[in-house]
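Holo prediction — zinc ion.
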Amino acid sequence: MSVVKCGMCKVPMQGPANAKGSDILTCPKCGQQDTLETVQAEVVDYARHWMAEQADEVMREATRGNKYLTYKPGARSTKRHRYVLDM
Ligand SMILES: [Zn+2]
């Protein structure tokens, strides 16, 4: 199971055991807090970016030196994520 961390401090977020959507998760270091619902949405977005980056890497590797195939990764936003997954 992946750990949800504060995107700034890289420390695990803390909240009640078996937290539900409206429960608050707090970063023990900077005090940033949000409902589990919001944190989950941010983390899903983070995971999507992370996987796209991995895919880029694989494609770059797979098409390297191949004169018939070139790979140009699409433009992606470089926005900072307030919450990240430790993957
Ligand atoms: Zn923090």
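READOUT: The radius of gyration is 17 Å.
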